[in-house]
């Protein structure tokens, strides 16, 4: 995955500011930068470059006075799916616990299941 989310950006940040930052940190210049107020999506040429950008920038660099956050971009549908599945998982866990009330001994394995986010 080569597309990264860059967040906590000052409203005054420009595409040129981001590209200059990447250049200063010896990161390959991003192929595409999609900038909105407060965040951007950046395409890197390969996965190694994307990983290096996360490790080099996230939580470590200030741009226009704000420490930026850099992480993998998650498509909206997948992030919504993750929230939906997490809610279902919580409901499933509660039903499993309710079904076992009154039994002696250790709780069943089902009570330890945690929802996981789709990647």
From TrEMBL:
<dbReference type="InterPro" id="IPR035979">
    <property type="entry name" value="RBD_domain_sf"/>
</dbReference>
<dbReference type="GO" id="GO:0005730">
    <property type="term" value="C:nucleolus"/>
</dbReference>
<dbReference type="InterPro" id="IPR012677">
    <property type="entry name" value="Nucleotide-bd_a/b_plait_sf"/>
</dbReference>
<keyword id="KW-0694">RNA-binding</keyword>
<dbReference type="Pfam" id="PF00076">
    <property type="entry name" value="RRM_1"/>
</dbReference>
<protein>
    <recommendedName>
        <fullName>RRM domain-containing protein</fullName>
    </recommendedName>
</protein>
<dbReference type="InterPro" id="IPR000504">
    <property type="entry name" value="RRM_dom"/>
</dbReference>
<dbReference type="GO" id="GO:0003729">
    <property type="term" value="F:mRNA binding"/>
</dbReference>
<feature type="domain" description="RRM">
    <location>
        <begin position="2"/>
        <end position="75"/>
    </location>
</feature>
<keyword id="KW-0539">Nucleus</keyword>
<dbReference type="InterPro" id="IPR051945">
    <property type="entry name" value="RRM_MRD1_RNA_proc_ribogen"/>
</dbReference>
